[in-house]
Predict the 3D structure of the following.
Amino acid sequence: MKILIIDDTETNRIVLGAMLRQDSHLVCEATDGHEGVLLFDREQPDLVITDIMMPVMDGYQAATIIKQRAGERFVPVIFLTSVTDEDALAKCIMHGGDDFLTKPYSHVLLRAKLQALNRIRKLHGLIKAQNQALLAGHTKDEQEREVARVIFEKILGAGCLTHPNLTYRLSAAEVLSGDLLLAALTPHGLLHIMLGDFTGHGLAAAVGAVPAAEVFYGMTQRGFGIGNIAAEINEKLRRILPSNLFCAACLLEWDPAERRITIWNGGMPEGLVIRPAQGVQRRLLSRHLPLSLLPPDQFDPSTETFEVQPHDRVCLYSDGLTEARNPAGDMFGSDRLEWTLVLTEDPERICDQIEHDLMQFCAGERPEDDIALVQLTCAPSLVDARPRLPVARTAHANTSRNWHVELALDADALHHIDPLPTLMRTLTDLQDLAGHTHTIFIILAELVTNAIDHGLLGLDSSLKLTPEGFAHYYERREQQLMKLQEGTLCVHVEHDREAQGERLVIRVADNGSGFAFCRVVSGLCGVDTNQRYSGRGIPLVRSLCHTLNYHGSGNTVEAVYRWH
Amino acid sequence: MLTSELSPDGTTLTITPRGRFDFRLHQEFRDAYTASDARRYVINLSATQYLDSSTLGMLLLMRERAGGDHADITIVNCRPDVYKIFAVANFHKLFKMR
């Protein structure tokens, strides 16, 4: 240790200094309190031994100042004095002293005191370091939680929770909620809702929300049903979550046109279908295990479907709501919730009302668990009022431009790329196809399929004459396509605006060696004359198009389609 | 991708193909109707984005399997442009359309 001795008597300093040096301490000496303080600042000793009575500044004053300057650092101060009256000794402690020893002192006793104080000094240093580490960790933790919260909110905001038919309330017990509420529309205008409740809350629970949301949005966008979505989320979570973490979830699909609701409930409280003036019409019971528990072969994606009337309301909630306790330990309970849900007819007010009732019940105490509630009003009028969804069509798309696109794929590209979705996306981006999307798809699909199947792969349609052959044909197609070494498929689509309307020219060419004649064979597509399972494609295209012509050896075909 | 659902009394099987309903689905589609003893079939096209001539072949195969002229198959939720395709192929004579 580095020890500062403050004493106005030189002999005292020499004797004490010698003893301390002998014990291999570093020693610095001051002759009065004032010099002692100056030396303390300069030398930053670990411990101070001071006399009381000194000229200029006494030991009490020096100790007080030294303790102040040491700040958070623990620098023990020992008073070494010839004063013996108790009041004077007590004053030493009051002025920040840690111990005292009266002269004449025993070297053994002083050594023991130094050892004890050194131990406390070291402990103090350790605690201080740990405290700092803890504080740094805590700050980092808080920052990370904040980042997670922002991510979490972005995930929730990515869907369409602002849909006019939805009202919801989410409140987290901690910074992060273990409850997850997602909503998104399918390409066909069906609304998907998922309310999930991860075991626990906080960061651990929120971690699972990211992959779950990703699967939910991705599959909804591609038009999958909720049973399939539940299966996929189950599998994804099962792979990544530790086995004690799982997600109770209720997935709902609302088809406004058909007035139909489809539901998959795994481990969530029963949802309610409430009809104005008639009360609860149906209970949406949990029929499955929560997500992430079952392996795919045991997972049950089956759903329930039922019809709803235009003013029916469907309510889903998490158990944090019904299990919220008041100070007396009673739970809010499903009866109380149902009562409020049935009596509050105005869908806009439902969340406020529930929150109000819950606050009143809990007597102002914050609920311990996350709380989530969502209500869907099945009124189609609200849907019509919704803002138009952003579609792939962009600002430059209009109905008057002339344009052409060309897509060429070689054998290798054909192994991986299905040209039809790419083409359809491009076409709908460029042009408002209005009610003609499907017809244009068929023309493209038939011509492209023909070019690949017969031109590049040389497949024979007569295979498709029997039911077994039909399946066999497509197996062969798959195999041969993957084995295809060379060949190119080229699709050219051209659009003109004519006085009479729109004109689309579709040209499909292949450089394969397949039989050309089977592509021009003039079959009939009607079932009266053609009872076979195939051979309908080209006649179908012919009936849909204005003109359909083959060129060259039959491996270039041009279709013209017109509309107003 | 498709979903199939048997009515509670086990007599009606509703098959709902999603997205592109074409030959890529033929195995799945066949599995769906061969796995059940349903007497009536409903093909729900509400979630179908596109179909083509291979779909027509698949529907004919199903019809034959379900009893040919005695088959009871209803196609529902058909959009106008899709209906046109069925009409061109005279499918409305073989299937009930709603």
In short: The two ends of chain B are 22 Å apart (CA to CA). The mean pLDDT of chain B is 87.
